[in-house]
Design goal:
Layout: E1 3-9, E2 13-18, E3 23-28, E4 31-34, E5 39-42, H1 46-63, E6 70-73, E7 78-82, E8 85-86, E9 89-96, H2 100-105, E10 112-122, E11 131-132, H3 134-139, H4 145-168, E12 171-182, E13 188-191, E14 199-203, H5 213-216, H6 222-233
Antiparallel strand pairs: 1-2, 2-3, 3-7, 4-5, 6-7, 8-12, 9-10, 9-12, 10-11, 12-13, 12-14
Pfam family, one: SAICAR_synt
Organism: Alteromonas aestuariivivens
InterPro entries: SAICAR_synt/ADE2_N, SAICAR_synt_PurC, SAICAR_synth, SAICAR_synthetase, SAICAR_synthetase_CS
Length: 237
Amino acid sequence: MEKREELYRGKAKTVYLTDDSDKLILHFRNDTSAFDGQKIEQLDRKGEVNNKFNHFIMTKLEDAGIATQVEALVSDTESLVKKLDMIPVECVVRNVAAGSLVRRLGVEEGLLLDPPVFEFFLKNDALHDPMVNDYHIVSFGWASEAQIAEMKALTFKVNAVLKALFDEAGMMLVDYKLEFGVDAAGNIVLGDEFTPDGCRLWDKETRKKMDKDRFRQGLGSVVETYIEVAERLGLAL
């Protein structure tokens, strides 16, 4: 597979075209950002850790019958992925109250949410990723009602798989975001990434934060903690 020109550069990843029009290369960089890019640092090995972590998680989801865009690792920091027409919304599931939910609603951090809370957010940095609902998504043509239903169903299927996975490793899956796209056959497929950058993970016993909140809140040991998460799951880095 030949990597060609850059297609898109995000805050922490770069997407490249390949000589196959249906495949892309996803490059995980060491860049780490928070607060819509107001805080940016380079963290050694982060790209490698997130690339391998993402491949591990996506493989677990594929084994559970959830289609993902990830096909193979091609280097320490790069993965081969299917090309998708991405839907510009984030699907967020909250199992425990934290982050913006606490700030918006004034609830106590750590409150267990039963049933879990599902939210949609428009993927738009300039607008600070505002919350949207099904009506916005359909009215503005971002996705159809059938696609919305499929994204919700898949997000909760992911929740069931990963809550159990992290629980067995002594961690709580507090919340996370997913992004979906449409493949050439019109199927909804899980895209982008699942890493500690895009979810919240706490140690079950101590409530130690094991995700990007360590960077946001200046807690330190960001990559070291990501590696600890991976190793608890059985992924050697």
